[in-house]
Amino acid sequence: MSGVLARRVMRKISVSSFACVRWFPVQTGRSFSVAANEKQTTTDKPEEYYDVIIAGGGMVGTTLACALGKNSRLSDRKILLLEAAKSGFKPPASGFFSNRVSALSHGTQRLMQSIGAWQQIESVRAKPVLKMQVWDACSDALITFNYDDLSENIAWIVENDVLLGSVYQQLEQVKNVEIRYGAKVEECVLMRDGANRSKVRLSNGDLVGCELLIGADGYNSLVRRAMGSDNFSIGYNQMGLVATLKLDPTGSSGNATAWQRFLPTGPIAMLPLADDVSSMVWSTSVPEAKRLMQLDEKAFVAEVNAAFNKQYPKNNVVSEVLKQVNSFVSAATGQKLEPAPMVQGIFENSRGAFPLALGHTSTYVGQGVCLVGDAAHRVHPLAGQGVNLGFGDVQCLTNVLGEANYSGLGLNNLSQLVRYEQERLKHNVPVLATVHGLQRLYNTDFPPIVGLRSVGLTITNALPVVKKFLMNRAMS
Cα separation of 189 and 222, whole Å? Predict the structure, then answer.
């Protein structure tokens, strides 16, 4: 068969504001090429070959390399991980806390156990979260999440560097995975004429080909652009401000609670790292984030304590409505607002900021190529779901590729890759839509909206079955 053969695969997403019908071409006779400088280039340098190339050595890409390499059904396959950093990651030194952390779900914890990394993570630092309190600064509404008698963790707070260092230690033992450090991708060429493989050219001139190219290269993914996929994106005009906090040890009492307060400008969260140390994530406007970054330590600590404790003006009508609702449900909950621990200081050089946005690509897969993690989807951090969605991609793709290889279907079989896409869309899109809706719902102090969300939060707090379902859904 000659000429250009175009397959059109329809993907229909019908969740909230993501409702759309996507058509995308999968090329088998024409190359797709995107260079990092947006110019197509060629090279005659002899190419190396791997069965799988993973572009991007962050948490998701590294974990995927480890999971694929340790899968018994893929033991005959050569895997290359391209990492831009000059060397591997090591767990942080004792007493040092990094400022980027993740709330790991039960599903992610099981994934880490399956690749052998969890024991190392725990030996360095993984703080269990037994309870979470969420409350509204514009009303008296609150909700708490915990299992009966605090018998089970809701999540684990783990520094990204701890997780990365632990996974890299496991990768050192995986014989069929090669890590190439300092590997900057300059160009991706998908499905070149006459060859059933994709190719990647690196900045040093190396050319590597593969049966399957996996883009784990973040929300500015070069692999995604090479696919020609549309990327739906919404900028929130907010920044996520992070810092590592020193708590008053007399008020932290084991520090096993995650605290999140919705302020008129965005949510602030305090996540436990140790008995008297927490990590902060504060979503706020760009000008406010820049102002907070410039404050000295004393002034910054005062702002953080105020964010968790300051009394904001409340609408009288909203307060009266909520009072009536509380009179019906207070007996069922028996819960009162608990104060968050007081902050005494911050660790040196722990403050940082990054822009916040929503993103979702029109397709995760093509012939011989697929996307995972932030390359496929990006979400606001208010629910702590971003990295867990990426690790869910890892688990699903590993299973699909293992079954495909065992069945003799190959790793670039489009029908098998579509199975991965369909399964992840069913999970990822509802999460993205829900988190986006919550961000919009809580990013206003308009009284009718405050009243609706406060009543909804209060009623939900009075329904243990609903709360347990939400916890299991979010952290499974």
Answer: 11
In this structure, are residues 380 and 360 in contact, taking their beta carbons and an 8 Å threshold? no
3-state DSSP call for residue 19? Answer: coil
Tens-binned pLDDT, residue by residue, of the chain (476 aa): 433 333 333 333 333 333 333 333 344 333 455 655 444 444 456 689 999 999 999 999 999 999 999 999 999 999 999 999 887 777 676 678 888 999 999 999 999 999 999 999 999 999 999 999 999 999 989 999 888 766 689 999 999 999 999 999 999 999 999 999 999 999 998 875 555 788 999 999 999 999 999 999 999 999 999 999 999 999 999 999 999 999 998 876 789 999 999 999 899 999 999 999 999 999 999 999 999 999 999 999 999 999 999 998 888 888 888 887 777 766 555 568 899 999 999 999 999 999 999 999 999 999 899 999 999 999 999 888 889 999 999 999 999 999 999 999 999 999 999 999 999 999 999 999 999 999 999 988 889 999 999 988 888 888 888 878 887 777 77
Q: CA torsion sign, 56 to 59 to 64 to 67? A: positive
pTM over 0.85: yes
Residue 363 CA to chain centroid, in angstroms? Answer: 18
Dist CA 127 CA 156 (whole Å): 5
DSSP 64-99: HHHHHHH-GGGTTS-EEEEE-SSS---PPPTT---S
